[in-house]
Amino acid sequence: MSSNKKKARIFVPPSNLKEQLSRPGGKTRDDAVKAAIAGVEALREQSMDVIDTAIQAVEAAAQEGSNGTLTEAKLNDVLRNADEIVEMAGTFGLENLDAAARSLCDLVGLLVKTSPYPAAPIAVHARALRLFAPGRPSLSSVEIEMIFAELGRFRAFFEAKPAAGA
Amino acid sequence: MEKSPRLNFHGVTALLVEGDRTSVSFLAEILRRFGLDNQHCVETGAEAKAYLQRVAVDFCFFEASLPDMDGLDLVRWVRRSAPIPYIPIVMLTGYSRYDAVVGARDGGANLVVKKPLSPQVLFDRLAWMGLGTRKFIETEAYVGPDRRFKQIGPPDLVGRRSTDLSQDVGDATEPNMSQSEVDALMKPTKLADL
What we know:
The structure holds 2 protein chains of 2 kinds.
Chain A: E1 9-11, H1 17-21, E2 27-28, H2 29-41, H3 44-64, E3 69-70, H4 72-91, H5 95-111, E4 117-118, H6 120-131, H7 141-160
Antiparallel strand pairs in A: 3-4
Chain B: E1 6-7, E2 13-17, H1 21-34, E3 38-42, H2 45-54, E4 59-63, H3 71-81, E5 89-93, H4 98-101, H5 104-107, E6 111-114, H6 119-131, E7 136-138, E8 143-145, H7 179-186
Parallel strand pairs in B: 2-3, 2-4, 4-5, 5-6
Antiparallel strand pairs in B: 7-8
């Protein structure tokens, strides 16, 4: 073992945060959480618009692909929008939309290892997102199961596909 | 019955660094409802650096993907070059980058929180981070909170198991091992090679 390395310094950093947070007053966890949930709920309407815009962006990216393929930049755009949908859908308990958007994130994670990047699986996920979008008629459990089975098939296909250059 | 912790955020200051306006509005609203009114929001890493050069804050929240830099790099900058390098930092990450951002702990972030943000989780993490007395470590390769905290348990002992032992690891008695020396310890070896 080499001996000329700098010794680690371990110390308690100076901070008065603990004292500040522990002062009398403030809110209990239950009160704070209840108030925060109400605050987030007040943002629901504008968040539904954000979801719609993000789905539109995914749809547009899937259609813009030339010769059925996407550029890496477009794929990253899709990922950013899918992440945003996960955040919004998860916050407001839109379970199916959340699961479809997570599936899209996972798919993009697999697609970036391949080349060229096919647009078709993104287009199918975009359709699923649209079907689960807020305000759309609700689907039967059989239909939902079928959609997720199809999305899962895409992921399984690309999971099994060897990475580019492998 | 477990006691519900009470936190007084009045007068506490936070810097929120997040490029996405919707995300920052969620975080800001949750913190405001906790009672943390003194928030300053910026969108880029460069703005965050400029702000931290001038103002001392009590907490920082960094999004992992900023428009002009990686949130991890911003954490490293704070730990190495900011006027107050010990600020508690919460790293926020979206679903797709979570695995990559778990490495944020290696960069010196106190916590990594995955979006969507849950008020319950955020309150508990802030309580744990703010009320705890976690030591800091400064080495050539790492500056940040001590990551060897699993046996210490959360503040006020809520959620601790009776079998958990508190263990102060103390100061290092030997020079740090290099990464290759650590790797060599972990390297799987075939029985036939022994």
